[in-house]
Amino acid sequence: MISCGGSKKVTQTRTQRSNPKRTTAKVEKEVKVIIGETKTTTPKTKKTLPVLPYKDRVQRYIHEFSGIAKSEMKTYGIPASITLAQGILESGAGYGELTQRAKNHFGIKCHDWKGDRVYHDDDRSQECFRKYDRASESFRDHSLFLKNRKRYYRLFTFRQKDYKSWARGLREAGYATDKKYPQKLISIIERYRLYEYDDEVLGGKTRKTTTSTTVTSQPVKTSIMTNGNGAHTVQKGDTLYSISRRYKISVDEIRAFNNLKDNNIKIGQVLKVASSGVEEEEEDFN
């Protein structure tokens, strides 16, 4: 018996599920690693000097480097007053770019230098300057620079107390091209009584100055007991040392200002901690 009905082939289609590639997780993991590395690399913060008026910068510089200048004077015979005045002038009282980058306080260029160096715009673009690890190395190199070069020989024929001859001699020997360089050095020395550091090394009596141009630091902290005229009223617990630290001047300066024979002071005593004088033009010392 033959059936008239046709037979249908039933085709079953299986939907094949494609296994997704596990690339997303891998990418995410890589991104996380990259992000993690980015978070761990933090830029180093640049150390900046405190913002101070120019005269306070100078007092800070003197307080920090007068000891080194006196030590160099004992070893090489260069007046501490000259070294300090040059350092203040050449380095902008320690705030100059070259000083902060290379601890070069005197603007000494490379010449026959074999040590580290930096490049800085001066008379010409990107001139080579010496670089030091410590400020004391810059002061020592300054001493050697003057001592070992024949053109500065005449300087060492001057008396160590004669800072004016030293200032003029530096200009005549070609240390600086600025015609007013000697006057600037002398002005700094007399305004801040830097010649007193020469006297300390030589053991002589402190010289008296007839000029009225001495300027010392005004107090930086507003909590200090002053009468507004550059004077300090002694409070309980005050010592000459603590007062000198507050006003960024030396004990010897306080004693000189007030004609004190020793370090004894009394509560209520009014001490002169700054003297009035001609204001200094900051742009001359940048």
Overall description:
There is one protein chain. The protein is mainly α. The protein has 10 helices and 4 strands, in the order ααααββααααβααβ. Strands 1-2 form a two-stranded antiparallel ribbon. The longest helix is centred in the N-terminal third of the chain and has 23 residues, at 54-76. It is globular, with a radius of gyration of 34 Å.
Distance between the termini: 122 Å
Summed up, the helix count is 10
What is the residue-averaged pLDDT? 75
What spatial order of strands do you see in the largest sheet?
Answer: 1-2
Order of helices and strands: HHHHEEHHHHEHHE
Considering DSSP H and I runs of 4 or more, what fraction of the residues is helical?
A: 40-55%
Assembly state (oligomeric): single chain
Parts with pLDDT < 50 across at least 5 consecutive residues: 23-46, 210-228, 275-286
User: What's the alpha carbon Rg, rounded to whole Å?
Assistant: 34 Å
Strand content is: under 5%
Overall number of strands = 4
Sum up the overall morphology in one term: globular
Describe the structure concisely:
This protein has 286 residues and is mostly helical.
Write the layout of secondary structure elements.
Layout: H1 23-40, H2 54-76, H3 80-91, H4 97-102, E1 117-120, E2 127-130, H5 135-147, H6 163-172, H7 181-191, H8 195-202, E3 231-233, H9 240-247, H10 251-258, E4 270-272
Helix pairs in contact: 2-3, 2-5, 2-8, 3-7, 6-7
